[in-house]
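User: what does the whole thing look like in 3D?
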Amino acid sequence: MTIGNHLVTFIGNRMVTHKTRQNEAVFRAISDPTRREILGILRGGRHTVGEIASNFRMSRPAISKHLRLLHAAGLVVTHKQGTASLCSLDAKPLRMVDDWLRDYATFWSESIQSLKKYMEENS
Amino acid sequence: MSPISVCDDRIVQEVTIKASAERIFAALTQPEELLKWWAAEGKFRIMQAECDLQPGGKWRIQVAGNCSGEATTSTVYGQYQTIEPPRVLTYTWIRENEDYPETLVRWDLEEKDGYTTVRVTHSGLVTEGLRARNDGWTIIVTLLQTYVERQ
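Assistant: Here's the predicted 3D structure for the full assembly of 274 residues, as structure tokens:
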């Protein structure tokens, strides 16, 4: 049900449109345990790439790669401060995940009520 | 806006129905039955259903929906995994033409004194990577709640 570049969910009667590519990037970003941990670290405030990397055993380039994916998903924002790059968290794109979960919660709630009605009226 | 109560990456909904578990199990697994009940007025309706009820067997539904007055259709399909009539039914749930991950739906039916408690659990909702069960998921839930509560 892809309409143009957008995706419209069939669940619920409110219009929920998302840019597919952006969704993909967000889902991909949070699918990895290291990236989720990075988001957890940034929840506590801004950090440099070096500070973030010091929490992990993997190499700094590997951490930078994870940060690039988070950045592409819009979950991490970087600011220059002198020679250092400071990373901070932007949780806004997660709103899409929340909308998606909410739609499913509504969908299942309506589905089981519909099942109940059918069962009890036809018994 | 309150955050949705998700623990882990799942949604759980429950209802108690005055009917036997056998009858409800049939309603969940027979195509002609699915067409009769699976709908929410003005929102969505199952238009077509196919069910090859055996482990590994395929199921498919076509859903007619309504987005702000605009008619839409979409297809959802998957494979049956656990079939233990009339208590447990599980199948994968995949939305056609979408990039969302494959998810899992589980129905648990518990009959007592003429009533059956039906619980539906939709899991794997965030990504298949989460199937590896990482604590990291709680971070996402916390972030989500923090974000939503601020709205």
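In plain terms: The helical segments of chain A are 20-30, 33-43, 49-53, 60-72, 94-121. The first strand of chain A starts at residue 2 and ends at 3.
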